[in-house]
Amino acid sequence: MSAPLIAGLELGGTKCVAILASGPDAIHERVELPTTSPAATLAAIEAVIDGWRGFAALGIASFGPISINRHAADYGHITSTPKPGWAGTDVARRLGARYGVPTEFHSDVVGAALGEARWGAAAGLTDLAYVTVGTGIGVGLIAHDRPVDGLTHSELGHIRPQRLPGDDWGGTCPFHGACVEGLAAGPAIAARTGVKGQDLPADHEAWEGVVHALAQLLHTITLTGVPRRIVMGGGVMVGNPFLFPRVRHSLRQSLGGYIAIPEVADVDTYVVAPALGHNAGPLGAIVLGQQALLSR
Amino acid sequence: MSAPLIAGLELGGTKCVAILASGPDAIHERVELPTTSPAATLAAIEAVIDGWRGFAALGIASFGPISINRHAADYGHITSTPKPGWAGTDVARRLGARYGVPTEFHSDVVGAALGEARWGAAAGLTDLAYVTVGTGIGVGLIAHDRPVDGLTHSELGHIRPQRLPGDDWGGTCPFHGACVEGLAAGPAIAARTGVKGQDLPADHEAWEGVVHALAQLLHTITLTGVPRRIVMGGGVMVGNPFLFPRVRHSLRQSLGGYIAIPEVADVDTYVVAPALGHNAGPLGAIVLGQQALLSR
Description:
Two copies of one chain form a homodimer. By secondary structure, chain A is an alpha/beta fold.
């Protein structure tokens, strides 16, 4: 049985990727578009997808926060984003109605998680987490092949971690100050050091607080009981691969042997880099479309 | 259609409750037994259930840690508990084989969550959390009517929270020191103050750290994106109801308006006491049995 053709859309803060595909080895079209105003961006996306034929479903993985509650009036909308003009923008209802196919809508990081789980660094695993560390910090949690959600999607990047002894820097999150995002995202690193993460040497002392905050996030994610593997992506991780062994070491120390399960004990295979690169999100949108088909 | 008759077992650290029921208004039998050695306790449970007829499934909600991975050799076992004699005890395989009915096995706190979601303080909600604050701190998370799990069950009571400024007390958790359980469970309160929680006056300064740690746990649980309501039970909460308004206030302050969703904004209905009392766990076991029937 050949996999059905799906239209996938990754809607990002700076660019969008629309793909027509049934998997990583069957990408029929792939178009990148800049993210500008909502009206111009959605019109450009529609101009692309209008030309496609034969797709059975539509999957959309979007920056957020977004509303994923199908019973809510604002379902399918980007809700309270600070991105100028985008708060309150309807994405999934509009595109779902235009193309008349089953449509699934979720966060960009859930999309990346689903892509990595199907074809990437967590291939074959039903339960995983994808953590992006970039302009913000986001977590996509998948259990039994489905996104973990309910009231809304995960916002675990905004948990308040235990701090390193003697470190009382206030962090940069406008809501929480020293939450994980306020301590370890790209803008936090730049604010604390005056240097962008990609230019900060590996032996700079500021990395210690970044590593500790990220390990605390992974400690928490592990204790949800869900992931069999944690995939860490985003600009800060991709640009500074020396962070991986340090985060793994800090996570192991923090857990203190509490979760006595082989998957966690082997921390080198428990915390890994992504495998799909810039296609994780778009391919995740394909998986979302497949799930829309299944749950129709 | 009348609900099927289910055999339910809550296996607790000090006592077990076996019930034959189809719901809270149809409890045919209810037997309490002390939890002693594994051999004596399980034999006593079997002597009770052997006398029951006509149940279609078996649900077991157990103290832990437990193995809920059906593909693992130790599925259905209590795994690494410090409770003398119980580590490595097979519960669910043994009872499931003895009675030959569909059997579901999960944590005691997931059981309580399912009971409160079906018939109690979260009735009608598909997504909720149950937090017990007693000898330990446990979290049961339910999304779309199902327990949130994967690698294992939740252990979120062991996250390491941000601390109150100036508070560097080391906590009592043998694994993590000042995790939430090490700061706010009954034994932690007693260790810090020399007084048991039930005898500690409401204006004792030690409650400040307890409230803060519990609010940080609720902050984290909220940011998983799952619960539409958080039910807080266990001896420390039930014995000290003044904690509820204080934990709600601290949670609201900690979130800082970040999750702009009505369910969370109305913190008085977001964080609530249980409604089923000592029957939450046993009735949760009935729900687990019903789920075993459905997924057969």
